[in-house]
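Appendix B. Raw example, untouched.
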Amino acid sequence: MVAFEAKKEPLAGKTAEGDSDGSTAITKARVFEIAGWSGLFCLCSVSMNILNKFASRALPATITLVIIQNAFSLLVAIAVGMNAPAGHKVYAFKQPLTVEIAIKWLPAVCLFTAMLVCSMYTLKLTSVATAIVVRSLTPHFTAIFDMIFFSRFISLRTWAALFAILGGAVLFLMSGHMYAFAVYFWPFANLLCAASYAVYVKFVINTIKPSTMDLVLYNNLMSLPLLLCFIWLDFLNAKDGCSSIGSCFETIAGDFGDMSGLEWMWVLLSMGVAGTISFAGFGLAGAVTATTATVCQHSSKIVAMMVSMPVFNDWFNLTQWIGVVITFAGTGWYSFERTMSAKSPDKPKGILKTEETGLLGGGGSRMCGGCIPWV
């Protein structure tokens, strides 16, 4: 997911006249802006994990669920882009989707689509906590790919932080409920796709030079036909089976008809959050410093895990708690090291940050809709 530069202006600005009424008004406006974007992002980030878990239970046709979420996100992106002030750096369209751009961006969209599918199946088949802990391993893959493809090496302290995250994640996974081996395909495939996406975006982004909203449009529009290629997964998982393509679609339609009012609520809420979370991430990045954004991302993950325990009756044992603490301590350490590295005068120019941003953070793969994100 693409890292967008955070504003460096202080919370309380002063006018030329000093602490005047104008200065007070500006200060209050900034406070409301920061609180509003922070609250919206944290709400969307926490809700995305919980609501997708509920929605995947409510609608057995998982790929169909992702399709309708993406279709709604596309409509929101079009509405925002068309009504944004001309030339707005974040919310205005800048680069039309030409055949040349579509060809260049197609590998990124393929990875983005795979990420969404893997992420949804991870939440459907495992716990929210497992999904979040495994997702914390994304920087490991990205660091390895950066070394291979860009010859970019990280410091020993950063590697130490990554090993701390890995140790905590392994402790959590090994001491909790062990799922069937095939179930772990989805979260680890998601990691591989996320890291590959980050590398490819770094490689191609400067040849396209799109705006944030262009990326949201590209990903959500181009992913729809690709998602249809995964619809066979819904056919395989049809509860009554199906003998032909027509009967399979009838089965999916029957799934919608069998949903209760509460289940419809989960699906509709998940659509709303899916269409909002990337914009919330961009708004947060523009309203606060990178440090504050990182705190919001990590806090959202912790809250999502805490909420999931009573909601889904998914409690941790003592060893898992230790694993979670180590994982998040390592994640905080890693974020600090990456922040210090970003401030280094030797930092390469023109490189797009990804895994350490909100796009791959609280919102997971969905935040990549604007990549990116991060998620």
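End of appendix B.
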